[in-house]
Structure formats: C-alpha cells, structure tokens
Amino acid sequence: MYLTIKETAEYLALSEETIKKLIAQKKIRAFFEGEGYLINKEQFNTYFKQMEKYKEMVEEYLREPIPEDRDIKDED
C-alpha cells in the first residue's frame, strides 16, 4: 500500500515538513509519481516492531525489583 506525504505524516504522527526532510535525507524511501511522492507503508513495519521490542525491554527493566541494600560492616 502506498501513501502520500500527508497520509504518511498522519500515520507516523509527524509533520509533512519532517516527512519531506526525511525523504530528502533518504531516510524514507519514496518515489516521485507525477503529482507527488508515494511512500510504501510496509517500510515502517520493521521500525514499529523494533519500537515494541524496545518498549517491552524498558518495561521489563522497570518491573525488576531494586535489591535490598546490604549493611556490610567492615571488620578489622
């Protein structure tokens, strides 16, 4: 499925200007088709999967209990 710049901006919750900059920087693959750019929606699937994995890792880290502080006495 192909999206326009406007649709891509809505899909990614970014501004249209940001999408245009990312296309110019070749961070988003797009091709010019007569009236404007078309962007393949499938290229963002990997990004969203990685973000979900990252969120799970952060949540797991935050759920980990803080170890109790040992009161270690120096015995000389």
TrEMBL record:
Q: Which domain of life is it from?
A: Bacteria
Per its UniProt record, what Gene3D superfamilies does this chain match?
3.90.105.50
**Identification of the protein by name:** Excisionase family DNA binding protein
Supply the NCBIfam families for this chain.
Answer: excise
Query: Per its record, what are the GO molecular function terms?
Result: DNA binding
Pfam families to which the protein is assigned, alphabetical: HTH_17
Q: Domain Helix-turn-helix: where?
A: 2-50
